[in-house]
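Most newcomers find our protein records easier to grasp once they have seen one. The structure tokens are whole numbers drawn from a learned vocabulary of backbone shapes. The record below serves as our worked example for the rest of this section.
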Amino acid sequence: MTIDTLTTISATAPTRHIALDGTSNFRDLGGYTGQDGRAVRWRRLFRSDHLAALSADDQALLLGLGLARVCDFRGVTERAELACAIPGAQVHSLAIEPAIVQGMKSLMDAGQRLTAQDTVVLMEDIYRAFVRPLVVPCGN
């Protein structure tokens, strides 16, 4: 990966996958339709696995794309072992484990037998709740 890749990424038609040396599965979520029917803008929202092993070129590329906020859904231990390596990025630690456990416990305490679909809905609701407060500050 070289910094020239940023020019290529910016000048060409949007691509979903952005190859980085220090992380896998870094993807642009642009183009997907949001709940209100509008499309997510390209180069505004990304997802990946952890960002702890980014090379200097990776860091420069992500900073060049304007990446300034990271929503980290990993648990406390994993975040401590593999901290985000994007200089100056504002990291929002949103550990999903406590919310999932509490949500499942609440459903079971109410006498509901959990199905795979219940778990999917619970996960989707929790992910939405985590990022909803960040959408307005980030703009459209």
Remarks:
- The first helix runs from residue 4 to 11.
